[in-house]
Amino acid sequence: MIKFETKTDKTDAIPQTSLTLGKDQREKSRLKVTLDDGREGGLFFDKGTSFQDGDLIISADGETLVEIKAAAETVSMVHCDDPLLLAKACYHLGNRHIPLQIDATELRYQHDHVLDEMVRGFGLTVTTEQAPFEPESGAYSGGGHHHHSGDHDHSHDHHQQHQQHSHSHD
Q1: Over the chain, what is the mean pLDDT?
Q2: Distances in Å between the alpha carbon of 20 and those of 35, 39, 70, 121?
Q3: Full-model pTM
Q4: How many CA atoms lie within 13 A of 156 on its CB side?
């Protein structure tokens, strides 16, 4: 069994094989796996480690470079050109703590007929498809807040800003 415990960004090397995993499997830090070429392996990563399509992992002996692939799984798809209606669906699904993959005109979540009916109730069409599922990482996972150039002067102490603004009216 090939042991994997390190992610890498080795972009100069070509992976020898890939490892196709569903969304739930990509969130496990310890997992026995079968590489796409048939070899047996094991994931031994720090707790909380998750994988996204395109991530690279390297074996403990440094011999085997593997690319993670998102497996096709049963998902519910919503296509919508109305951003407000799409936002409404995202709000109600997110309020139920449903992992969502959100694009400009598309919403994807793990298939659930009850949720499909709720979304249809907003006037949206829901289809069931086999497709990779890469949900948003979430606000508390470390990947939820990104700074872009020009954002470095932005303060995150909104409560303090509000208090200062309130006191200026006294």
Answers
A1: 85
A2: 7, 13, 6, 35
A3: 0.73
A4: 5
